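Molecular record:
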Amino acid sequence: MTSEQKLTRILAERPKFHEGELEIMRTFEPSESFLPAASASKIASSGPVFYGIGEAATRFIFESVSSQSKTLEVGLGMTTLAFTLKGAQHVCITPFQSEIDSIRTYGRTLDIDFANTQFVCESSDTYLPRCDHADLDLVLIDGKHAFPFPMLDWYFTADRLKRSGIMIIDDVHIKPVRIVKEFLDSDPRWQLISGFDHKSFAYRKLTDTVHDVAWHMQPYAFQGMNAQRLKKISSRAIDLVRNGLSRNK
């Protein structure tokens, strides 16, 4: 069976690697959730389930990487198999060993070789600040969606991504992820490549660094600001510079 055939089978089978609520390490009461009671109860008590990025986004990843690619993913699922099938030097970050065990077990049924896939069983907010991966070709952010985790995952991977590399974010209908999307849409250092199912979006990085900037270099920082207030800020900045120059004469 070819890699393409294996991917087609995976997409049809929608394998279940997840169980219950994936964003916390404890059980929770449905009353803690703002979801409708029935939905919250289902998440709290569910067995193995499929939480997956869409087929179009998974195929995009499969077509975008090769055995020469260096890639990183926050989260685990069908996309992990897509990276692995292409032989990418891949890093998959999930805090749940059960997910890693499940995907390895499923992979054996399709004779998938995980030799080039590094599984990191740790929360992304503790691993990413110290990880030593760089010059990445593609990053997928599809981990914890609670505020501020999507921002942290983006922040700690953006400059590990090389110029012209691709950043994919998933589940933009959830506000913390949507904030990241709004920033990327406005920032001249990123270019929207494609959207998938109105929930996943791919961006190309256009510069070597996206963090070596000041707030006034980011269009997103200006959105919603009052023009008169901006004028006062600008005038104050000019006065401070002039006063500094005067003292140095």
Observations:
- Residues 215-247 form one domain.
- The chain has two domains: 3-205, 215-247.
- The first strand starts at residue 18 and ends at 19.
- Residues 227-247 form the longest helix (21 residues).
